[in-house]
Amino acid sequence: MARILILLLALWPALAFAALDDPLAPGAKVAFLGITFLDTSTEGAYNGVRADETARIPLLENAVRQRFLQEGFVLLPTDALAAELAATANPADCYGCERRMAAKLGADYVLVGEVQKVSNLILAMNLVLRDVDSGTMLRGMSVDIRSNTDDSWLRGIRYILKNHFFKP
């Protein structure tokens, strides 16, 4: 019995991440609640919001939407959640509120993301897809990018989508 327990404990990490490679349901309804920008850099503390970084969030969101549509998913309009989303600082970090909002839309999956600016050179990008009913993370990846340009941001999100969400 002890050997079985040791074997299960040894295999636990592999079993826990196995769901991250399960196929996604074709044509599933996705509530994409957007990507949140978090500026924790010293530059942001001193200089405030930068227009170029603010403009990059819709750029990333459009790239994500286009890829999900290209892969055959149905992206649900989130207009009915406008007030709730406006009152939520970060749907990617709200103790399950993203699932509750997605459930109101009748979504199968909920998709949220974050870009954290550590410095003007170092940024971290995260994208997470969860099953609305169970809360199980179906896909999730974080990448660090270097450089703070449209190209580097797009390269980061495309890497996540290509190499984890929709890997061949």
UniProtKB/TrEMBL annotation:
Pfam assignment, any one: DUF3280
Extent of the signal sequence: 1-18
UniProt keyword annotations, A-Z: Signal
InterPro entries to which the protein is assigned, alphabetical: DUF3280
Signal keyword on record: yes
Keyword Signal in record: yes
Protein name (Swiss-Prot/TrEMBL): DUF2380 domain-containing protein
Phylogenetic placement of the source organism: Bacteria, Pseudomonadati, Pseudomonadota, Alphaproteobacteria, Rhodobacterales
